[in-house]
Amino acid sequence: DGGITQSPKYLFRKEGQNVTLSCEQNLNHDAMYWYRQDPGQGLRLIYYSQIVNDFQKGDIAEGYSVSREKKESFPLTVTSAQKNPTAFYLCASSIDRLPTEAFFGQGTRLTVV
Amino acid sequence: AQTVTQSQPEMSVQEAETVTLSCTYDTSESDYYLFWYKQPPSRQMILVIRQEAYKQQNATENRFSVNFQKAAKSFSLKISDSQLGDAAMYFCAYKPGTASKLTFGTGTRLQVTL
């Protein structure tokens, strides 16, 4: 079945450590996105990519990094520079530049202690 | 920069009644797309309805319909005959026609009461 997969569902890390969240899709979508969701703040865009080997900063990119080496994969690294990394992270993909819906993964809950 | 504003953090509706969720957006683009997503407690995002800016006719999907006012940059969602399963967070989203950036509002939590 086609879809978008995020792993793991729950992730715990110690403060000061970098951590990478996985996002894989087999929908043949060009565009992929990373969002952060905090209570009362909605979904805030961290990074997005329209094509392999290219990506753009979203509204809250500081402290995060991404790569897009393959069309299917868009991993997000939460670096130690991110001041408040504990949050729910959602990955999504869509066909580029069309009014089709974005498909979302199940999300990763990251807790930094 | 495009922004999406949902001014109602919480709304409540009785079962079988109608409720309208508000959304406004700011853009200088003429070609764009608007979406309403639902996020139930499972946190899985589900598309409710979409609207293309060039279409004057308001989109409808069963009990869900929108009131798209392009000049006012308003995109409200009407839920008719509300059901208990409609209880969720609802997010309005904007996507320009020339790029892939998908921007969400802060959401409205909808409660459905008996």
Q: Treating each run of at least 4 consecutive H or I residues as one helix, how many helices of chain B?
A: 0
Gyration radius of chain B, in Å: 14 Å
The backbone outline of chain A, from C-alpha atoms, is globular
Count of beta strands of chain B? 12
Largest interface: A-B, 27 and 24 residues
Q: Which value, in Å, is the CA radius of gyration of chain A?
A: 13 Å
Helix content of chain A: under 10%
Determine the structural class of chain B based on helices, strands and strand pairing: mainly beta
Distance between the termini of chain B: 41 Å
Keywords:
heterodimer; A: 113 residues; mainly beta; 11 strands; 51% strand; globular; B: 114 residues; 6-stranded mixed beta sheet
Sum this structure up briefly.
The complex is a heterodimer of chains A (113) and B (114). Chain A is mostly beta strands. Chain A has no helices and eleven strands.
Could you please describe the fold and organization of this structure?
The complex is a heterodimer of chains A (113) and B (114). Chain A is mostly beta strands and 113 residues long. Chain A contains no helices and eleven strands. Chain A has strands spanning 4-7, 10-13, 19-25, 31-38, 42-51, 54-57, 64-66, 76-78, 87-94, 103-104, 108-112. In chain A, strands 2, 4, 5, 6, 9, 10 and 11 form a seven-stranded mixed sheet that branches. A four-stranded antiparallel sheet of chain A has the order 1-3-8-7, with no helix packed on it. The radius of gyration of chain A is 13 Å and the shape is globular. The model of chain A has no long low-confidence stretch (mean pLDDT 92). Helix content of chain B is 0%, strand content 53%. Chain B has no helices and twelve strands. Chain B starts with a strand and ends with a strand. The mean pLDDT of chain B is 94. Chains A and B meet through strand 4, strand 5 and strand 9 of A and strand 6, strand 10 and strand 11 of B.
